[in-house]
Amino acid sequence: MSDSVRPDEVIPPNGGSRVGGAGVQLRSLALDVVQLVPNLVKLLTRLMKDPRVPRRSKLMIGGLVAYLVSPIDLVPDFLPGVGRVDDVLIAVFVINHLIDRAGEDVVLEHWDGPYDLLDLVRTVLDATGQLVPPPLRRWMERLSG
Q1: CB within 8 A of 90, min separation 6: which ones?
Q2: Looking at the domain assignment, is residue 116 inside a domain?
Q3: From CA 108, how far away is CA 115, in angstroms rounded?
Q4: How many separate domains does the chain show?
Q5: What is the mean pLDDT of residues 76-96?
Q6: Distance (Å, rounded) from C-alpha 100 to C-alpha 122?
Q7: Range of the domain at 77
Q8: Closest of 109, 140, 124, 101 to residue 37, by C-alpha
Q9: Of all helices (H) and strands (E), which one includes residue 4?
Q10: Is the pTM of this model over 0.85?
Q11: Residue pair 73/5 in contact by the 8 Å Cβ criterion
């Protein structure tokens, strides 16, 4: 009976058995996210202070903060499910822009966390940034120079 496969078990590609299955993966993902937030905040703070990062990119972060606290939104916040989508998409676009404009060397110099988490951040930012509607993306890119 010990050799049987449970229906909820995730079997890795090497054929071995993983104890805990999806629960272990969720805990691992939650741990990655918990580690990611402080490292991302530190990265953004350091990039804002770094003189090698273009001033316009830093100003976009200020514009983002102003937009997030402003009562005027592209999509009203009181709409259930979609009210915060514009805030998230614009925040992701601006953070992605700041990291791109800073350059690989500068970002790596300021990143404290594991490099695989930085790759995860970039993947998520790139994928989510593609959800910004093209006209809004072009307008924001023109503003940033």
Answers
A1: 64, 67, 132, 136, 140
A2: yes
A3: 9
A4: 1
A5: 79
A6: 9
A7: 36-144
A8: 124
A9: none
A10: no
A11: no
